[in-house]
Amino acid sequence: MPGMNSGLSPSDPTLVAAFRSALLHQGAIVLLVLALLWLLWATARTWRPAAPPAAGRAATAEPRGRWLLRTGFGVLWIFDGILQAQPKMAGGLATQVIEPTAASSPGWVQHLVNWGGTVWSYHPVQAGAASVWIQVGIGAWLIAAARGPWSRLAGAASVAWGLVVWVFGESFGGVFAPGLSWLTGAPGGVLLYVAAGALIALPEDVWCRPRSGRLLLAGLGVFYAGMALLQAWPGRAGILAGMVKEMSATPQPHVLSSLLAGFASFAARYAFAVNLVVVIALAATGAVFLTGRPRLVRYAVWFGIVFCLADWVLVQDFGFLGGLGTDPNSMIPLILLFSAGYLALVPDVTGEMIGAGEAAGEAGTADRAGQAGEAERPGRLRPGVLTKAGNAVASARARSVAAAGALAVIVLGAAPMAQAAANRTADPILALAISGSSSRLDLPAPGFSLTDQDGRTVSLASLRGKAVLMTFLDPVCTTDCPIIAQEFKQAGQMLGAQAGHVELVAVVANPTYRSTAVTRAFDWQEGLATVPNWLYLTGSLSQLAEVWRHYGVTVQNLPAGAMAAHNDLAVIIDPAGRIRQEMDADPGPGTSGTQSSFSVLLSQYARQALRQS
Amino acid sequence: MSRRLTGAAAVLACTGLACAVLASTGLIAGCGSQPAGVTGAGPPPLTAPLSTSLVTTQGTWAVGVMGGADPGNKFWQLFFRPATSGRWSLATPQGVASNGGLVAAGGGAYLVVGFRPSQNLAFSPLATSTDTGRNWTPGLLDAGLADTPGAIAVGPSGRTLALLRDGTIEAAPTAGAGRWAPLTTLKALAASAPGRACGLEGVTAVSFGPDQNPMAAGICARPGAAGVFTDAGGTWRPAGLALPAGSRVRVLGLTAIAGGTMALLAAGTTLFAAWRDGTRWTVSGPVTADGVRALGFGPGGSAWLLPDRGRPETVAGAADRTWRPLPPGPAGTQVLAPGTGGSYDALAVAGSRLTVWRLAGGAWARAQQITVPIQYGSSG
Asked: I need a labelling partner for A470 at 20 to 30 A (CA). Which of A557, B57, B174, B319 fits?
């Protein structure tokens, strides 16, 4: 999975603090937007009272099945959004959730998922925060917009985001990986969100026909039958116990891990019997769903709820524990889906109107209501655009305003994520997390006179008028130095036209291997031989030792086949020859993300140094 | 309404279809796959690891790997035992990580060590000593050394040959200061008349002949043909031999001996030593090994073999061409080092500790122990 791994610990304090800060800032903006919307609405209503609701709408209530799906999945999305705000999520989702999930999938899946994972690992804070707000926004939108096109649009938004999460977050729910099992969440909990969103996006009157419920249950029946067949396939019986045992290792309360460990032992001992029970339960539930007979289905629904809850606790371990759980897995969404199917199948004989109070004049009717308001005030002047808008706002219900607020929250999350996805360089926060905060300085840079890779004498004074990004590299280093050199090279490229005012300078940091032949070999190895502003300086041991001492670099040979040891340091010198910044140049894990991040940071420092001169 | 119901039906039908696809995918994924078939040809010739020893006028040198199991914690070491003493000491040149492996070669007063590339290092730093490893002069090969113990050869004048990873052979007046110039490439050598004759597939060792001409050896496609070549004024001439064995032959090692050349050859899992007195080859009896842990040349045309399993074997020279077993090596034996009068030292490794066992009275006796200051974690 090239690119996906930032190599940083998910609980890295710098990353966690930046993530928390971003959430707090964006949360404040969310509150501000919501307050403004409320203020606008309240003002409009004071200025122009809302029109009375249209009489005919009160007679119809939202179908119960649709209501269950909409509110149920709305709550789930909000819950998932809150889970995304867990501290480890920004730094850990790509490496500890996405990458392992994709690892067992075929190459083309890994390739596709890697793109998303790279975006996340390059911009963990933006991506992490965006996921929070998008999911909270979708959930709030689903709950707030009960009726009309806005409600259906919320369903469509659920489909769109659900597919993004299913593909990039769940690697297609693992359907292309071996070991697929309904018990462990196949075909991915989020795919069920997608299905629910699609059902919510359907015209509302579809839900008024029992045939709809029958079709939904039939679809689920086929699904159950398929999963029963899969579960019955030879070799499946032994898999369950291992998976449960693995889940029991997730950080969680002891009582839960003991419960899981106990069930794992039971499932291991009676593997065949447990699997047989599962196969029969799945097949029987599926068969009953396929019949579409309400009385039978009612029993199957109750059985399904119990069975799913048991699986949710004993096998899926609630799905969201351990600090990196993104959702409660597939069982709760599944319960919502077949329960909605049952409610759609069975006519509402009690006449109870779920949400009847909300039915009148919902969001989608705002314009109509506004127009009706106008119609009731015939003697007035022909209204202008502003008046029409004012009418519309004034006549909107609180739920419509809330839905608009939810939409604003989604945009607030999606915009930075889109910006991050378009940016091919990594967030400098990764470099800051590795190197710690750099020190801003204003000191005269110690002078030197050394020899470059082409044998020319170069002094610091000769570089006056240019910013200098300087570091210390061992030309025969096998680990960090080639990575740091690449970071410098990329930083130079990022500077664009300003690169002409910046020199990228490395000083040899090896007491033994310090000839110009070695620096030239290093340059060829790293593709630096043709970089016009790259200088790799060397000299006699005494010359080098003086430069090392002046810049606080310790260099020494080590015995027994170890590399020469030296500390990694980057110094940013302004065109006037003053040190403006010093940073630890240790490249950390040296992944493509961290390399890019260091390059961004170095180029930013170089620009600052140019401005400060 | 019917259109809308059709839309709903489509969503639901898609759910069912998806399930069917999922089920079939899972079933397919659950099926096992047959391992790829193995061709019917005989076993490929054995290869030579970098662990070895060599004898120069100053004493005996041994190359072995120490440290942990993780590749980043494996450090190759060079040890030296002066000709005048029985004590070994650590002689690994400093300044470069040795995780990729060491190749050592001696000639005249020179001992040249090459560091094989590892991790982010793509070329091979060199180190030359003329004072038994007390001081080293850094050098450089601007490409990676081949992964074979015969990748460097040094002549009495210090002239050095280096075999690169791509099969190119380069030469320099000395390893420390001279500029390297290409001598030939695998492609050119394979296209030469002797290369074509044996079907040369790769170069595995370089050496100098008795007339100080560069020599190269490799692996040939033609069964039984041992590819050895000598450079006569820019033209490569055949200097190989034919083994009675019917399988492909790989030259595992090539070295100069008094008045001639010696080679170690592998045909499948059978090894031979061979001596050339200038014009004619003499071949030893066969010795069989499942795998090679280490092998090397000794003084007077002798050679030794440390197989993966079984007892070490030695051969005394062209005059006594029979491989003879030594007592089973002590645990952890990584390399044998010839001593005086047909005696051998076994260098056994456990982490950072090297134990020297000396063959005396038909049994191995512990002679010395060295704790090597390995810098664990220094190579990432």
From this structure: A557
Question: Following DSSP, what letter does each residue of B135-152 receive, concatenated?
Answer: S-EEEEESSPBPSSTBSE
Within-domain flag for A407:
no
Let me know if residue B293 belongs to a domain.
Answer: yes
pLDDT of A385 reads 63
Question: Distance (Å, rounded) from C-alpha B286 to C-alpha B272?
Answer: 5
The answer to whether A464 and A576 have CB atoms below 8 angstroms apart is yes
Do B95 and A220 lie within an 8 Å CB cutoff? Answer: no
Whether A49 and A394 have beta carbons less than 8 Å apart is answered as yes
Residues in B closer than 8 angstroms to A198, CB to CB, are 11
Residues 541-580 of A with CB under 8 A from B: 557-565
Distance CA A349, CA B279 (A): 109
Chain B residues whose CB is inside 8 A of the A186 CB are: 22, 26
Beta bridge partners of A46: none
Which ipTM value was assigned to this complex?
0.87
Does residue A419 belong to any structural domain of this protein? no
* B317: in domain: yes
In which band, very low, low, confident or very high, does the pLDDT at A180 lie, cut at 50, 70 and 90? low
Which residues have CB under 8 Å from A278's CB, separation 6+? A182, A183, A231, A240
Domain boundary among A334, A349, A364: A349
pLDDT tens, residue by residue, B211-233? 999 999 999 999 999 999 999 98
The pTM of the full predicted model, rounded to 2 decimals, is: 0.80
Helix (H) or strand (E) holding B245: none
Average pLDDT, stretch A561-568? 94
Measure CB to CB from residue A206 to each of B5, B98, B120 and give the nearest one: B5
Structural domain boundaries enclosing B215: 148-371
A326-384 pLDDT per residue, tens: 888 889 999 999 999 999 998 765 444 444 444 444 444 444 444 444 444 444 445 56
